[in-house]
């Protein structure tokens, strides 16, 4: 058996173990990088660590640290309730508020599971109170999170654009962002129509708006939130875990204290705006800027920020750095070139492209979307270099295929939605999410390939 084939089989084993056992995929990938690098490729420690993504490490830590502070001091709860006030009781608009709110949160740097964990409990509570389909509301939240997930300053966007730059592929940050946003917006529109959204319009507005915390929110607040132990609502494997009370949220959403601005929240909102301006207008590094802003907030309000370091998405940091380090080992030993030539050897690049999209969707429905993107994009490099398929379209299709499937109840986001839904038959809701996730896996990769790859974007 060739060393290249061994390294790919080890990667498959890593994904299988991470999916079926409570072991972080990144930790497995580090162990695999050591074993394959030392025993198969003959690399020393320097050669193994050559692929460690130090810049992405800083981005992940910086933006999740800043957002953990925003959660701890109640800024995110204020944002949620301020958005709800905008609908003035119009029930049909609530799912769209949740869609755009989670999209905004991920677009400015929140990890997707964190954004879903913040919004889903409130969204599903609204669904229970106003008779909205929980599947509709849950799908709107997840697709909203993925719709904003590839902005140039988001976690997913930074990771994918970084991989594209490292592999010296043609890239277009705006095209990637718009591809994901439009795809998820269209899917959300279809879901809205199919699962009772049109009937909501006929209901008009509910009782006059008393304002968040004064009658609009269901009693009991937002329900469960993900454990702070992992920082991003995932188990050590990067997949879904149990949900428990979040210790970092100040007050119960719906209580008067969560709907007022105070100096800490004003400063945090200013910091989030400053991050957007610094990265988009001034071209500053997103990670270094975010961690600097987080340190300033921590120094000014240490009591709000004391628990924030523990809420950094450490499991996501470990997952991303581990997978990309292993991919670096694959690159060092020539596996990526070998595998890419094998895919290209199919003789039909378009067929190879659609196969990669389906691989990304299937694996991501059960494991880490970011992890599979980190592995598949480098594997596509050799046949993309042939010039028969546009790199921008291929990367966008892979990104969309690997993330829209997060509605699966086996993924972190889908599991958070399932756990957050009050007063539902959970077995029935689980089956609905599973069927819906299966439809997305079956349909979206082919559509993404047809729209983004076949025309030859980039």
- Compute the average pLDDT: 79
SS content category: mainly alpha
Measured distance between first and last alpha carbons: 37 Å
How much strand? under 5%
Low-confidence stretches: 207-256
Radius of gyration, taken over Cα atoms and rounded to an integer in Å: 21 Å
Q: What is the global morphology?
A: globular
Order of helices and strands: HHHHHHHHHHHEEHHHHHHHHHH
Number of strands: 2
Largest sheet: 2 strands, antiparallel
| Count of alpha and pi helical runs | 21
Please give the share of residues in helix: 55-70%
Strand arrangement within the widest β-sheet reads: 1-2
Topology summary:
Elements: H1 3-20, H2 25-40, H3 45-49, H4 54-72, H5 75-87, H6 94-107, H7 112-130, H8 134-147, H9 155-166, H10 173-194, H11 197-203, E1 225-226, E2 243-244, H12 263-280, H13 286-300, H14 302-305, H15 314-332, H16 335-344, H17 349-364, H18 369-384, H19 391-403, H20 412-420, H21 426-453
């Amino acid at each position: 058996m060739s060393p290249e084939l061994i390294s790919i089989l080890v990667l498959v084993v890593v994904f299988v173990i991470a999916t079926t056992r409570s072991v972080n995929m990144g930790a497995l990938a580090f162990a695999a990088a050591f074993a394959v690098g030392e025993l198969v490729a003959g690399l020393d420690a320097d050669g193994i660590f050559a692929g460690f993504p130090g810049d992405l490490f800083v981005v992940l830590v910086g933006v999740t640290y800043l957002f953990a502070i925003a959660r701890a001091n109640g800024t995110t709860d204020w944002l949620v309730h301020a958005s709800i006030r905008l609908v003035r009781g119009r029930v049909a608009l609530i799912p769209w508020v949740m869609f755009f709110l989670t999209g905004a949160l991920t677009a400015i740097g929140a990890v997707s599971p964190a954004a879903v964990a913040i919004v889903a409990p409130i969204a599903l509570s609204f669904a229970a109170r106003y008779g909205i389909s929980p599947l509709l509301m849950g799908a709107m939240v997840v697709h909203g999170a993925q719709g904003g997930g590839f902005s140039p300053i988001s976690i997913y966007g930074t990771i994918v654009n970084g991989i594209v730059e490292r592999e010296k592929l043609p890239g277009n940050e705006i095209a990637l962002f718009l591809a994901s946003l439009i795809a998820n917006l269209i899917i959300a529109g279809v879901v809205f129509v199919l699962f009772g959204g049109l009937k909501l319009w006929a209901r008009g507005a509910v009782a006059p708006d008393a304002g968040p915390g004064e009658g609009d929110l269901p009693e009991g607040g937002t329900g469960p939130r993900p454990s702070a132990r992992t920082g991003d609502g995932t188990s050590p494997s990067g997949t879904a875990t149990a949900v428990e009370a979040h210790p970092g949220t100040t007050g119960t959403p719906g209580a008067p204290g969560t709907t007022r601005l105070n100096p800490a929240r004003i400063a945090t909102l200013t910091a989030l705006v400053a991050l957007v301006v610094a990265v988009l207008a001034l071209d500053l590094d997103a990670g270094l800027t975010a961690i600097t802003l987080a340190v300033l907030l921590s120094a000014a309000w240490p009591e709000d920020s004391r628990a924030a370091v523990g809420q950094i998405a450490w499991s996501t940091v470990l997952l991303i750095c581990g997978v990309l380090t292993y991919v670096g080992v694959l690159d060092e030993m020539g596996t990526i070139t070998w595998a890419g030539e094998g895919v290209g050897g199919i003789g039909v690049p378009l067929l190879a492209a659609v196969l990669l999209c389906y691989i990304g969707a299937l694996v991501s429905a059960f494991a880490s979307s970011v992890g599979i993107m980190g592995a598949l994009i480098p594997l596509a490099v050799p046949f993309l270099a042939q010039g028969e398929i546009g790199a921008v379209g291929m990367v966008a299709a892979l990104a969309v295929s690997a993330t829209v499937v997060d509605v699966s109840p086996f993924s972190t986001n889908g599991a958070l939605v399932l756990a957050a839904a009050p007063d539902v038959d959970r077995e029935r809701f689980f089956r609905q999410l599973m069927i819906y996730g299966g439809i997305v896996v079956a349909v979206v990769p082919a559509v993404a390939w047809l729209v983004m790859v076949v025309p030859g974007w980039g």
